[in-house]
Amino acid sequence: MHQPEQPILRDIVLIGGGHSHVGVLKRFAMKPEPGVRLTVICRDTHTPYSGMLPGYIAGHYSYDEVHIDLRRLAEFAGARFFSDEAVNIDRANQKVICRGRPPVPYDLLSINIGSTPQVSRVPGAEQHAVPVKPIYQFNDSWQQLLDRVTHHPGITRVAVVGGGAGGVELVLAMQYRLTRELQAMGRDPEELVFDLYTRDEKILPTHNQKVRNHFHQALAMGEINLYTNAEVTAVDAGRLHTEDGYWHEADEVVWVTSAGGAAWLKETGLELDDNGFIQVRDTLQSMNDPKIFAAGDIATQVNHPREKAGVFAVRQGRPMADNLRRAVLGQPLKPYRPQKKWLALISTGNQHAVASRGGFYAAGDWVWRWKDSIDRRFMAKFNELPPIDEQAMAPTKPSRVPLEKDEQDQAISAIAMRCGGCGAKVGATVLSRALSTLKPVERDEVLVGLHAPDDAAVVKIPAGKAAVHTIDFFRAFIDDPYVFGKIAANHALGDVFAMGAEAQTATAVATVPQGLESKVEDTVYQMMTGALEVLNDANCTLVGGHTGEGKELALGFAVNGLIDENDTALTKGGLQPGQVLLLTKPIGTGTLFAALPQLKIKGRWIDAALASMCVSNRLAAQCLREYGSTACTDLTGFGLLGHLVEMTRASGVDAELKLEVLPLLEGAEETVAAGVLSSLQPANVRLRRAIKDQDQWVDHPRYPLLFDPQTAGGLLASIPADQADACVAALHSLGYPHTRIIGRILPEGDALEPVHLR
């Protein structure tokens, strides 16, 4: 993550990861604007390039070849990436309302979310048709359709609804791919029947006659049935209905027509056209809100209406970026006039394509190669990125953002050297506003808590209980304060759960980068909202804390837990020979987050790692006790080997680990193989002397992961061997699908090394 020297003065928020917004990110990456922060809100980390989708469907490209990795691109641009989905805009308070996180404030907002199929207008289509748009959702639907068709016995009839370029390209790509899939299975391709339906009297109505003739021939060669003047008026299981009154058989229905704006836009008060698209000026600003911009399919330029085509979204990226920059700097915006004619390169499924522009027509394999070259060059701009440290060499420039008088005072204060002690505390007004809406779970033992104006919390220890105390604190490793808050709370609670205790109360200590009061307030609010969700879920009351200003965002908790006085805590010293070792979560967080700033990752690897770190160990700890666990610890900074050595020494036993069965986070082996290791790895590697015959294992691809430091890692525990399988099954059902038996406990041997690898 990035730590800018210049305090954040303005926030530009980008909703969606469409073709225009990737252009915005790249331009701001090449020329950052000091004091301006970009935030991307997008549900999917990998955004598809529509121009290569037919080639992907046909099998000519892999998934990664046709997707832009938004998380990597955002990291490169110094932008925050929030994996979520916008569902509304609070324009009065300038906040984006999201589906699964706190509202995100903005100073300027841009929307580039593509179009949404209006399948609800046709009875049954929502239930029985597969919409192509939004494109980011289509991949899962396509994979499911592919599986259904290849496993469907006998004749399969596939109907594509929509006679524009998208529908024609898609039906030809599907016919090419599915035919070859059946041939590879030794089945007869004649089992496939394809139908193309269009409500128009001709296909490709916006293209010239030569182009249409070529595709008529392509459809005929593929034995694809064409139905013109055949508007689909209803869809049912196994059939569809056209306006002429006939029902037609259709095992699969793919919808490539009647797209409009997302339904939630109607609640925003933005001016929309009849299809629900945002109406924008030539500056790409909303007609009735100059702080909101829109581009791509979701936008309609009132003065220059154009067909919905990816070429316009791509071309709008540069003027969008430039006008966002001008707007945040208080400069006049420049109008953008889209071209009236554009080159369309339309593929026919079989690495053959047609070029169309006005009256121009050309076709051949060479057109496909031309299209392929253009598409690959476009994707390389966003996926083949130079290392970030090369970009960070430029000296920091003063911000050009115009500020109000009170903002100027705050910015000067943020930049100036702060004294220590109370001078480094976040202001009381800012803190009270940020925390005022937080509602910690209530416990009867808390006599004085978070919202009391006292200097300390007062908490009773119930009769018959013993107190369990722990503390954890670390700096942020991601740019999303909400998710970081959740992980920090999970990490701190892990020690209490590993001991077999319940969490009672927590006290927070946080460091927040200096900046304008509104920015500091939101950071605290986002971070503590995430943390409080985790604490409340654990029935752990947040009773107070301390928040100071510093260079980096950081958060920690002192957690107090309770355990019955007569209960035996799950300590590290309870390993017994004959037991098996269980690990409840995959490992690899250290290497993955070391690889993120080096851009040596795939965004989905980080998504999976964050999801794992957000899973609480509470239910796992309870399950382990129920199945007779006698020793347990949570994996954190010392890594798997470090924590296991602690347990063997305390228990007076040896342990055997099976490297091949270790649960790993996706991508961890790849980043380790690339030599990307956590900064804590060298200290952990010193424990290699605890491995018997370690020279035999140093070249094993999983060997370095024994030393990988974990954040909010899983539980490492011992279980009686006869309970192991049942315990693993129970943990899987509780939401720990990666739980594995990774080894066994041995009697202490004569060798000095307590850990044996297999």
Automatic annotation (TrEMBL):
Pfam families: AIRS, AIRS_C, Pyr_redox_2. SUPFAM superfamilies: FAD/NAD(P)-binding domain, PurM C-terminal domain-like, PurM N-terminal domain-like. Keywords: ATP-binding, Kinase, Nucleotide-binding, Selenium, Transferase. One of its GO terms (molecular function) is ATP binding. Residues 576-749 form the PurM-like C-terminal domain. One of its GO terms (biological process) is selenocysteine biosynthetic process. One of its GO terms (cellular component) is cytoplasm. Residues 454-562 form the PurM-like N-terminal domain. Residues 11-304 form the FAD/NAD(P)-binding domain. PANTHER family: INACTIVE SELENIDE, WATER DIKINASE-LIKE PROTEIN-RELATED, SELENIDE, WATER DIKINASE. This is Selenophosphate synthase. It comes from Marinimicrobium koreense.
